[in-house]
């Protein structure tokens, strides 16, 4: 699956950048993320994701690695995990790019992922729709937590 979105946000790049590193606030923004903790500052995190996709509920611990961080400009991360109950393996890459526009920002989100196992057998269309819904929900939650 692959999802790309551009969000116009009423926040300066510095404000948005600070928010992206605020783990508790990001947990609240990411649909299905029920917990996350910093393992190594600005480099590695552990997160628990729970999502219902079609008739299947996925619950997996994810190892999240920051692969690129250019302050107030670009953040890229990868995540890998496995749901031991349903045997699904998840890999994803998320790129966030911030473009400055006066006192506002445009956040470009590029997410790519693969799901293997029973969940992957649901078909590309079902997984693609769930991914798009999740990115759109992330955007709505991010807007809601931005300082006004």
Commentary on this structure:
The chain has helices at residues 13-20, 23-29, 124-145, and strands at 2-9, 33-40, 44-53, 56-70, 74-83, 88-101, 104-116. The protein has 148 residues and is of the alpha+beta class. It has a single domain (2-145), classed as START domain (Alpha-D-Glucose-1,6-Bisphosphate, Chain A, domain 4). β2 and β3 form a beta hairpin. The mean pLDDT is 91.
Give the tags:
3 helices, 53% strand, Alpha-D-Glucose-1,6-Bisphosphate, Chain A, domain 4, seven-stranded antiparallel β-sheet, 148 residues, 7 strands, alpha+beta, globular
Secondary structure topology:
Elements: E1 2-9, H1 13-20, H2 23-29, E2 33-40, E3 44-53, E4 56-70, E5 74-83, E6 88-101, E7 104-116, H3 124-145
Antiparallel strand pairs: 1-7, 2-3, 3-4, 4-5, 5-6, 6-7
Helix pairs in contact: 2-3
Give a short summary of the structure.
Helices cover 25% and strands 53% of the residues. By secondary structure, the chain is an alpha+beta fold.
Distance between the termini: 34 Å
Strand order of the largest sheet: 1-7-6-5-4-3-2
Proportion of strand residues: over 45%
Query: What is the second-level CATH architecture?
Result: 2-Layer Sandwich
Please summarize the sheet with the most strands: 7 strands, antiparallel
Number of distinct beta strands: 7
Name of the top-level CATH class: Alpha Beta
Helix content: 25-40%
């Amino acid at each position: 699956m692959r999802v790309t979105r551009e969000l116009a946000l009423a926040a300066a790049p510095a404000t948005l950048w600070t928010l992206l590193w605020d783990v508790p606030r990001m947990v609240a923004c990411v649909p299905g993320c029920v917990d996350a903790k910093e393992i190594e500052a600005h480099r590695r995190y552990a997160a628990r994701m729970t999502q219902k996709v079609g008739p299947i509920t996925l619950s997996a611990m994810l190892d999240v690695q920051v692969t690129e961080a250019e302050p107030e400009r670009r953040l890229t991360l990868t995540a890998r995990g496995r749901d031991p109950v349903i045997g699904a393996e998840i890999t994803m890459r998320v790129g966030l790019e911030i473009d400055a526009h006066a006192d506002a920002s445009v956040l470009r989100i590029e997410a790519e992922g693969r799901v293997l196992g029973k969940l992957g057998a649901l078909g590309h269309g079902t997984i693609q729709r769930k991914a798009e819904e999740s990115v759109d929900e992330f955007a709505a939650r991010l807007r809601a937590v931005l300082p006004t």
